[in-house]
Design goal:
The chain is 35% helix and 21% strand. The protein is globular and about 55 Å long. It is built from 9 helices and 9 strands. α6 runs antiparallel to α8. The protein folds into 2 domains: 168 residues, Rossmann fold (3-Layer(aba) Sandwich), CATH 3.40.50; 106 residues, K homology (KH) domain (GMP Synthetase, Chain A, domain 3, 2-Layer Sandwich), CATH 3.30.300.20. The chain binds guanosine-5'-diphosphate and magnesium ion. The site of guanosine-5'-diphosphate has 20 residues, from α1.
Amino acid sequence: MSRTGKSTTEFRSGVVAIVGPPNAGKSTLLNRLLGQKIAIVSPRPQTTRNRILGIVNGENYQMIMLDTPGLHKAREIMNREMVRIAIDSLAEADVVLFLADGVRAGSDRNEQRLCEYAGYLGPVRCPVLLAVNKIDLLGEEQLLPLLDRLAAVHPFAEIIPISALTGQGVETLVAELAARLPPGPVYYPDDIPTDASERFIVAELIREKIFLLTREEIPYSTAVLIDSFKEPAGKKPAVIHATILVERGSQKGIILGKGGAMLGRIRQEAAADISQLLGCRVQLRLWVKVKKKWTTNPQVLKELGL
Ligand code: GDP
Ligand code: MG
């Protein structure tokens, strides 16, 4: 990647922070840009708990994208930490991408909430782009007035309608983001999609299955800790042992399911994703352990990177 000689376009690089309300599609967008699943996705708010870094390479740019937990009014200590992670990432950014859910933004109540979220953007000095997501679910007659109204929420540098799911508009978005990066070096080798460890992504993939397969408060009461991770050797599979923490005995029963059926499904679906991630066969063993009030236990939160 020569940046000398007759090259007319300057190489650009820097940090793009993806922020926005829970469930807007931030993690889905990051996975699409990376062409692989690094960030977990579910229909529930607050699926993402940590900051996930993904590196997107183009001919003339390198974007270091930060996927963040959703901005929301948080009371509990863990949720406050999650919002803090999102706000901190704003300070590191060269460009901020504010992602809104185009379907939900349509209602008055949600527009008002979007204004509240946009309040976090007040102190931001770098360009802020707005992407209005999920346009695969919107008709043009809904989209155009919505874009007008959202333009009034904050002085966005650009407003771009996209669908992270189908990819519509995503190329335009990437070009607009890249154009606003400062001139800079190649920070990461171009074959490294993320700085997250395999261990972290493995724990996240298990957590995603819990988010997708269980209901109500269960996903929010669980955490996944990797106890051991043995690399594959020759024909032997990778061997991974993990513990699912829950807050109460009744929750343990739900995660286990009748005769262990629920845990079996979580294990099976997670193992399939992990096998794809690692590119090898995987033997996954899961345990469920009750740890009262782990969401307020500083030691556990530290272990989870919060
Ligand atoms: P996050 O909380 O902002 O990270 O949102 P997620 O990426 O976890 O997505 C939340 C939900 O919205 C998931 O069920 C996604 O499949 C869904 N979703 C994300 N982007 C799109 C999109 O462009 N169109 C549609 N129809 N659904 C989407
Ligand atoms: Mg997310």
